[in-house]
Amino acid sequence: MALSNFINSQGSFVAKTSPTGSGALPAGTTGERDGSATAGYMRFNSTTSGFEGYDGSAWGEIGGGGASGASGEGILYENEQQIDNSYSITSGYNGVSAGPITVASGATVTVTSGCTWVIV
Length: 120
Description:
Layout lengths: L14 E2 L6 E2 L2 E2 L13 E4 L4 E5 L4 E3 L20 E2 L3 E2 L6 E3 L4 E2 L5 E2 L6 E3 L1
Parallel strand pairs: 3-4, 7-10, 8-11, 9-12
Antiparallel strand pairs: 1-2, 4-5, 5-6
């Protein structure tokens, strides 16, 4: 298959550091996000120091977004104190946050039927 089959409409692609190394994802601040994002976009957000993806309606953290304890044992996780973008808890899942939590003006949190959101 020709390399041109892998190049997106903007003429770029995700580069690898080596055959078994890492993919070099785009990185930038929250303010530098794509203005017209499409579902499936992924990047590193240098403002929040975490990976994020676009689900078709909002940007959100991608797995392992919380910081772990100094020993690296994953005993301490962090979450932001303000929700800036609307979010719906995925059907079949529950959510948990450490409070206090503020939902920004214009943003909503939808707790899908059969789901639970607990703020401790």
